[in-house]
Write a structure and sequence with these properties.
By secondary structure, the chain is an alpha+beta fold. The chain is built from two helices and four strands; from the N terminus they run βαβββα. It has one domain: Macrophage Migration Inhibitory Factor (2-Layer Sandwich).
Length: 64
Amino acid sequence: MPTIQIDGPKIQSMEQRRQLVEKLSDAAAEVYGIAKEHMIVLIRENAPENVGVGGQLLADRHKK
């Protein structure tokens, strides 16, 4: 089964999570030519203090 793994900031609502999983599954299933029921989507949420960009934590960049 194809697996999509996405890392990003916290998603605010359950409805947004549902939409993300549905749209990613639909797109990948279309490309693979399979039923979306065979797609796995993993969402990993990361707090700004756990992500660095350009040598700085996002938490610090947001303070500026």
